[in-house]
Amino acid sequence: MIEIKAKLVRADSAIYATGECVECLIEFTHKLFGEEQQRNAKASTVENLAWASVQLHCYRKTSYSTQSADKTAELAELIGRTALDAVTQTPGEVIVATKPKILFCDLKLQPGETKMYFFNEFVPRDGPPTYRGHDIRYFYKITIATQRVKSKVQTLTVPIRVLPIPLIARPDELPVTVETNEELTPTNPFLEKREISELEISWHHLKNVTARRAPKFYRISNKRGFVGRFCLFKPAYKLGEDIVGSLDFDNCQVRCVQFSVKLQQQELPLRPQPEQAPPTAGDDVASQSSFDMASIASGITVDNLHKSETSGSARNKDEPKPMGKLSTISTSHQVCYSTLQTQVVVPIPLHVTPTFRTDLVDVKWRLHFEFVTSTMMDFGVPNPQSGELKAPAELPVETMVWNLPVTIYAANPLQIYAPNQTYNLLIK
Predict the structure, then answer these.
(1) What structural domains does the chain harbor?
(2) Which end of the chain has the least Cβ crowding within 10 Å, N or C?
(3) What is the SS3 assignment for 185?
């Protein structure tokens, strides 16, 4: 009996970024169990494995209709026979596959003997991230395929999570070297200078994008008057960060009784429509009363990403409103009738998928606001005896909704704790 064990070298986090190297240790052991273990090991037969190969697959499982039969056949020819046997045992369509690496050929194991092999592979930069959506799923697996002589092919899969790192559109505009403390120390002229990889430049660029503060202000009003002003300090965030904003209700004409902010993930299906432009998320505004949003961004014109549908440049009632499938991740609720200023803090979990786009789906993020307003500016009637305010029996309110798009990027995989497991397979 042969036992195959596989474990990732990165023990604290089985999470990788696109372009990062995945390292895995694979053991092949000839084990003896039960009564057989008590016998003489020399009397047992020698186990023989014909071959073993390892490769990285990205699968797609979706309810959308796709025409990928020809691509699957071409991919099978490129991958080879061993990968084709491994693919057929996993539900889903293979969209990304690395070149298989042969671990050994004709391996003979004595009773109790163990052979260990090391496998490393780079995650393709152009592949999608790990995503579990409503109508589509992307998942990665390291497939270990082996075959005993005159037996069928056996496979062992090791799942990993992949986070997307955006590709740099203009590499010539970025610095060639990354500024670190090591560059400030005296250098040795006889040592070669270490080259900065494309992944390191992407991480450096991503840190600059998510750390850049660009406050944008949004004026909230309806047909009855000014409600308040919302300030978002930056439009781009990383996994694990908090989306922090502030609401100012000073000099309002309509009182905001309470509001809630929801962080929502929007899954938009992309279908081939050459005559229409791709849909954009977060531009739909629905309210019982008309909701006019005019943005002022410290003298800087707000781009199309931060315009509501009722703004002057985006108002078009004839255009369709793409909604897609929505998932609420976190919610913040406050009662703010007598509040002049408050802040909004919405956490971004580490287990969600950042913003990304493929040929079938466009995953975006947005802040979903729900404001409950009232025209009653003076709340309650003072009690002449105690001087306390007495709440009114009825309060006329109106509800309006606003969606503000935000961009979420991936965090460093080493900052996300995901304990690694050992996966094994017994071949009898």
Answers:
(1) 2-165+413-427 (2.60.40.640), 166-176+196-212 (no CATH), 215-409 (2.60.40.640)
(2) C
(3) coil
Please, what sign has the CA dihedral across residues 74, 75, 81, 85? Answer: negative
Q: Does residue 306 surpass a pLDDT of 70?
A: no
Q: Taking the CA atoms of 67, 69, 74 and 80 in sequence, report the sign of the dihedral they define.
A: positive
Q: Is 95 helix (H, G, I), strand (E, B) or coil?
A: strand
CB 226 within 8 A of CB 219: yes
Residue 66 scores a pLDDT above 90: no
Contact present, 19 and 121 (Cβ < 8 Å): no
Q: Which ranges of 109-266 would DSSP assign to H, the alpha helix?
A: 198-211
Residue 384 has pLDDT above 50, yes or no: yes
By the 8 A CB rule, do 58 and 95 touch? Answer: yes
Question: What's the DSSP call for residue 303?
Answer: -
Percent of the chain with pLDDT over 90: 42
- Mind giving me the DSSP string for 133-171? -SSEEEEEEEEEEEEETTS-EEEEEEEEEEE--PPPS-G
Tokens of 354: 């950042």
* Overall average pLDDT of the 381-396 stretch: 73
Contacts of 335 (CB under 8 A, 6+ apart): 257, 258
Instruction: Pick the more confident residue, 229 or 415.
Output: 229
Please compute, for residue 371, the number of CA atoms within 13 A of its CA located in the half-sphere on the CB side.
27
Secondary structure of residue 186 in the 3-state scheme: coil
Identify any residues that bridge with 331 across adjacent strands, giving them in sequence order: 262
**pLDDT tens string 109-161:** 888 889 999 999 999 988 899 999 998 999 999 999 999 888 889 999 999 99
Helix or strand or coil: residue 161? strand
* pLDDT tens per residue across span 211-267: 878 889 999 988 888 999 999 999 899 999 999 999 999 888 888 999 999 999 999
Three-state DSSP class for 3? strand
Residue 275's alpha-carbon distances to 261, 272, 279, 313, 360, in angstroms, are 35, 9, 12, 22, 17
Q: How far apart are CA 284 and CA 314, in angstroms?
A: 10
The Cα diameter of the chain in Å comes to 102
Residue 74 in this model has a pLDDT that exceeds 80:
no
